[in-house]
């Protein structure tokens, strides 16, 4: 593997990083290079934008032909990378995303965006609606909405800022419930693998209806959330909006169990965490971290209040908490 310096980046490795095929060591090299200077960061996003454009055009040959090396000058910088956004077509929130090929569904071209573990992105839909997609989330939507409605399919967590159009309702379809709106801001957390469902309304109005029984529905008011517990929907007021700051690159938790926090770390850092220490299970915890701080930093901070040790198996991407 080529050794990278801050002045000399191997573009082939960089594009492997974009594709999600880079090794763990190559990922670390890219991140170190990217954080070394403002010029490196700008070059990273320039190449990322080019990569995304070629993906949209389906130009895989051009993507794989990028084998040149390029040189960047050095200057100091340490900043959060996720806040750079472009609303033209597809916005990268920090690293890479995968596009599945266009499909025909009900005679309409559909686009699916899947976000890997440890990443998040911001996109703008054809109607002007802005969507933030969390890690391990997929969103399917038409390249052009119909004249009667706007429907998208979500598996995972997303924050929606819906462009208002009273003639065309906006519907988010999940595996258990559909969320219908006209124009509003809300968060939907519905990972099919967990079987959980939660919708939080920040502004406007939404109707939540069961996929299996549309008669089972309710209208949610601002500053309230609806959660699925024991097969029934429960509405409660929102006491803390910090958990929804994931789109800003923050991991926030309030009175959460250690295991719940570790599950968040698994999602945001793309690894498995095995907890063998039973003592840490007895308490609940409150705090926040920047995703860019990394999992090691977060665990070391938790160690200040909780007695535990941990070690990493980098080859298998596992952390053992003991």
Automatic annotation (TrEMBL):
Residues 251-319 form the Protein FecR C-terminal domain. This is FecR protein domain-containing protein. The lineage of its organism: Bacteria, Pseudomonadati, Bacteroidota, Bacteroidia, Bacteroidales. Residues 112-207 form the FecR protein domain. One of its GO terms (molecular function) is sigma factor antagonist activity. It comes from Parabacteroides gordonii MS-1 = DSM 23371. Signal peptide: none annotated. It comes from the Bacteria.
